[in-house]
Amino acid sequence: MAQIKITLVNSPIGRIPAQRKTVVALGLGKLNSSVIKEDTPAIRGMANSISHLVKVEEA
């Protein structure tokens, strides 16, 4: 299956708690940290819900 690279580019400080929990659930901590995840509908949905905070690329 394909993989995607998710990078945290904006801070979750001041965002609603659900968005902060989504950032943590994806495994992102500090700014510019990246994770590589399988391209599943669940992961895509999480990334889309915080699309203003992250950058998504094909890996």
From TrEMBL:
Residues 4-54 form the Large ribosomal subunit protein uL30-like ferredoxin-like fold domain. SUPFAM superfamilies: Ribosomal protein L30p/L7e. The keyword Cytoplasm does not apply. CDD domains: Ribosomal_L30. GO terms for cellular component: ribosome. Keywords: Ribonucleoprotein, Ribosomal protein. It holds the Pfam family Ribosomal_L30. Coiled coil: none annotated. Belongs to the universal ribosomal protein uL30 family. Part of the 50S ribosomal subunit. This is Large ribosomal subunit protein uL30. It comes from Lactococcus nasutitermitis. The gene is rpmD.
